[in-house]
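[Solved] Which block belongs to which protein?

Original post:
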Amino acid sequence: MKILLVNPYPKDRPPVAPWPHLGLVLLAAGARAAGHEVRVADYAYSPKAPPVASWIAGFTPDLCGLTLYTAHMSQARKTIAEIRRLTPVPIVLGGPHASLHAESLAGERLGDWIFRGECDRAFVEELPRIRRGTETRVVSAEPPDLAATPAPDFGPAFGSESMMSYPVQLSRGCPFSCSFCSVRFLSTRKIRTRGLEAALDEIAGAVRTRPRLREIRIVDDCPTYDLERFKEFLRLYRDRRFGLPLHIDNLRADRLDEEMLDLLKAIGVDHVCIGVESGNRAVFEAIHKGETLDEIVEAARLVRARGLRLYVCFIIGLPGATAAAERDSIRLARALKPDWIYWNLFQPHRGTDARAWFERHGRVLFEEDTSSLMGLDLAVTEAPCDTPEFPAGERVRIHLTAALESGAYWLNPLFFPRHLKLVAAYGLGRSFFVGLPAALRINFKMLLHKARRPVRRRVEGAA
């Protein structure tokens, strides 16, 4: 069987993915091992990938699979409509949006089969039975055994030869109960691990075959759930002498210590990013993160004391937040003096406690085609939910205020017209000037850091 796997992405947005979609190349690995021919087109990674029509004409797939994200659903619907127009083959849907909205998508008849959850194994097992039908079939996939899951196969992904960052999973799942997070509906709260040596062997293979790589990135849902195990991985990584720095996603302030930070620094970790979420104690405690603001402040101090760069993440508009409460987040962000700040706009993901709070106390205005992220040029989206005390327009205004007053945006001359337009439109002249010294400091240090970033060392003796 010939299988085309697609990650739809709006054509008018710049690419954001540092590698071809990990979920799709994991499916590709399993399908190819079972004897199928696979192509992967991830338009969030490579907008130069041929259009879907070209793949259908040239590759003539027997099945098309799409991963769905809430933020990109308009483009996904256009892509699905195009596939339907060009070929009668079955369409399979998966990914976060499909997992959280399987029933409504089935009602739309958007796809023929929908996989909910981690479908690495289930997709391959069901391939012989996948057909077009009069009703959409929904498959709830059982979480796979990571020890028996093949390593991702980036070979079939268009543009993968240009990868500069390589993603690695040591585990999946997160045992914590953050009210805003949908991970427990996607990869469950149960931690599942793979052997550390298997992960290191995968890294060795990537380093050997992909000379453009500049970093290895650990993309676990909660990499330090078992801190001692993670430190053992760092020691093994150090001993292997790969010659590439690590980047670690999803670190928690209460799951790091001085030894871990020393190991990170020794193997060339560029920075440590900590999720703060809110600087207001009442809002913070209501999200049930399982750690305290005091622990976060102390973790930030430790990162600084070890000479590592500090990044932090905040979320504007969490349950119970008001414009006044968000001022606490801005004050904390400025006090921490991080090297970068991610200001995210709260998204009401289906099934989360935070969404249920808004359904009781406010409004969920829309779900699709909205993003939590702010562009480096201060590009923002409308707030997808609000309350009478904190209306949607004010949420966007505070989102911009936070970025301006903390200096977390690029001082690129090409962006100045947009900056000035936004400042004028929202009456944020004072915020602009208050945060300008921080913006100058952050931008100067970022440019200086990039100028000093070492060129990749040739790896000697890699396995």
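(Second protein starts here: sequence line, then its structure tokens.)
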Amino acid sequence: MSTTQTRTGMGQVVVIGGGIAGLAAAHRLLDRGARVTVLEASDRLGGKLLPGEIEGVRVDLGAESMLARRPEAVGLAREVGLADRLRPRPPPRRRSGPAAPCAPCPRATSWASRARRPRWPAC
């Protein structure tokens, strides 16, 4: 970010990049009274966050659309009016027991010492 100070307060701030970090920075700076310009190289804002549609259902595309486990991210979503769009992630489904039916125990490899060969439990 580069800043030019003015008599009216924080001044003019240029934010380089319109991804989530740049947009969050611009939002905070606007709250503090700065005049903000966001520069983005692509034809849209959002960075790696990209809206899409799969079989008629709107989805967020990207590695992870928001770290909802971080209170800062949830707070930012609420501040910009997206609180009603937050959805809790369902808990992971876990099962106990073998992943597959018991198979023969693997043989020791040529580099494994016989003294250190693991003892495989009987199924």
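Accepted answer:
You had them paired correctly. Confirming on the second one: The chain has a mean pLDDT of 75.
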